[in-house]
Amino acid sequence: MSRLMVSVSGVRGEVGSTLTPGVIEKYTLAFGTFIKGGTVIVGRDSRVSGPFVSNIVKGCLVAAGCRVIDIGIVPTPTVQMAIEHHKASGGIAITASHNPIQWNGLKFMDHNARFLNPEDAAKVYAMGDNHEYELKEWSGLGSEEIDADANKRHNEEILKLDYIDAEKIRNKKFKVVLDCVNGAGGLIVPQLLEELGCEVKVIHGESNGKFAHTPEPLPENLTDLRETVVKEKADVGFAVDPDVDRCAIVDNTGMPIGEEYTLALAVKLVLSQKMGRVAVNMSTSRASEDIANYHNCMFVRSKVGEINVAMKMLEIEAVIGGEGNGGVILPELHLGRDAPLAVAMSLQYLAEFDGTMHDLFLSLPQYKMVKEKVSIEGMDPDKVLASFADTYKDEQINLLDGVKIDFGNKWVHLRKSNTEPIVRVMTEAPDEKQAQDLADRFMGEVKALM
User: Which of 253, 255, 394, 435 is surrounded by the fewest CB atoms within 10 Å?
Assistant: First the structure.
């Protein structure tokens, strides 16, 4: 049986195993009590288990005295934007993000339309675990209503951005292939592309939750998209995850350029128009950092996790930021990862660039990244990381989130998992061999401690 994942990113588990009606109930009631029975936006991705989870969530919120606004099958960032639109007290996105079909979960958001910060998240989880929630009597019950226009408003707000010249994109008449993995993206991204004058070929666009392939938009999962881009002679291909907060790009040759470069493209677009600060997480590619340095802009890193990046962006008043998993955050829209936004920004930069998407990719700083994991069963992960911190104390080292060691033109980042007895080993270097060699070296050093 898998473990229930309870973290700053929300609650996730396997339906019928670790994510039970009781688990959904206790954390939802705790959240409803925590926000003191205000207005709550509820949206979900397209998972088959979504309707039953949604019914429990909405019922519990009504029992806690909340006014529930159900916005249906939508991206997670659309929930965030609906919180702002309705001036709600918070929101719940029912999704397990990129996890497989048997998973589902809850992402909790506050009145600022951001994920709960670590302190508030811990408080809600403790309230749920200790059954410290309030049930209203009949006269104090909440209510439920429907808002069917959230996806439409989301696209409209993207098209209003100063960075997006819709007419310029329309004049290019781009041919685009889109893989929505049968997630929520099928109800918003094709419509955005059509508004931008693109000829759109959608694959896996039914929002039925029956994922056509492993849903995380990594290169190894994009075979159908790659083949369709080549077959259709498309200008570009986009893949989004089930809750549409991550976007990966396939260029006109059918090559995945890597999720890291979705963010790099957005950073380059913004900084070419406006000077400002940039914030990303500790594991994000140096490509975005090189672009910020080129424009003489401050570049700051945070702990891994969307809320950590968002809080850092708020702190330094960043103009652009995100995570290297294809998650672009533009504060002028909202402080959350947003795949429809990433699609529009990528097309905007391509429209301004004199060349193909492949040429555009090659114009960016070039790095290769390797992501591995190694078992540390029976070992204390904090002691493992402390050992590396001591061994490499004379190198350029950062202990903000795990152990990151910079070796000039390459780096390694070691992080423990909160859900598995493993250490994640991430490396980046100018070419794949150097990145893999560095990963192999540190995986070997971890194993040597056993």
Answer: 394
Helix (H) or strand (E) holding 429: strand 422-429
Buried/exposed 77-103: b ≥16 CB within 10 Å, e otherwise:
bbbbbbbbbbebbbbbbbbbbbbebbb
Q: At what angle do helices 432-448 and 381-391 cross, to 10 degrees?
A: 120
Residues 6+ apart with CB under 8 A from 344: 158, 159, 161, 164, 169, 192, 196
- Provide φ and ψ at 34, rounded to 5°: -60, -40
Does residue 362 lie in a domain region?
no
Give 313-342 pLDDT, tens digit per residue: 999 999 999 999 999 999 999 999 999 999
Amino acid code (one letter) for 417: S
The pLDDT-based confidence of 186 (bands split at 50, 70, 90) is: very high
Pairing, β 39-44 against β 90-94? parallel
Tokens at residue 32, please?
């409803």
Helix (H, G, I), strand (E, B) or coil at 56: helix
- Tell me if 394 is assigned to some domain: yes
The reply to whether 95 and 164 lie within a common domain is no
Q: Print the domain residue range for 202.
A: 154-250
CA dist 94 and 242 (Å) reads 11
Domain identity same for 246 and 268:
no
Q: Which residues does the annotation mark as catalytic? A: 97
Distance CA 149, CA 132 (A): 35
Q: From CA 66, how far away is CA 92, in angstroms rounded? A: 12
Last residue of a domain, one of 338, 353, 382: 338
CB of 301 within 8 A of CB of 281? yes
Q: Per-residue pLDDT tens for 1-14?
A: 467 989 888 999 99
Q: Where are the alpha helices (DSSP H) in 104-207?
A: 118-129, 150-159, 166-172, 189-195
- Count structural domains, the chain: 4
Orientation angle between helical segments 339-352 and 150-159, nearest 10 degrees: 30
What is the number of helices (H) and of strands (E) in the chain?
15, 20
Tell whether 137 and 208 lie within a shared domain.
no
This prediction has a pTM of 0.95
Boundary residue ending a domain (225, 250, 275): 250
Using CA atoms, how far apart are residues 87 and 10, in angstroms rounded to an integer?
Answer: 22
342-371: per-residue pLDDT in tens? 999 999 999 999 899 999 999 999 999 999
